[in-house]
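HUMAN: Now follow token order:
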Amino acid sequence: MKTTILLLLVTFAGANACTNSELLKPEISLKSDTVKYKLKGGETLYFENSKLTLMFDSIASDSRCPIGVHCIWAGEVVAVFKINEQTYNLRPGEELKFEHFKLKLVDVFPYPEAGMAIKQTDYTIEFFVFE
């Protein structure tokens, strides 16, 4: 019973975070050592001070428990990135190092809802880039 209540609270908190966030336009140059970005599915970020390109390619899987559904497992979401044509998979909280940068995936929006399909182009990722 305690697990069910905790899962519902976590699901509710995640849903609120998703609806209250605003879409930020990516900054193209890295002016400080940490920059926060948001990209929609298929968008590419070009780094001015480097020959790197970072593309949010797609969502490989999204098994997160939909809003309004009671689940035993919270599920997970896996985002697919292409960095200079090499493919990488990341889950929220995971980090990836490339050249002198480090990328940390923070979250994936929107959160699934029962009976609603999400198109690849409707997904948005939020991530940090550390120099």
User: Anything to note?
Assistant: Helices lie at 2-20. Residues 2-130 form one domain.
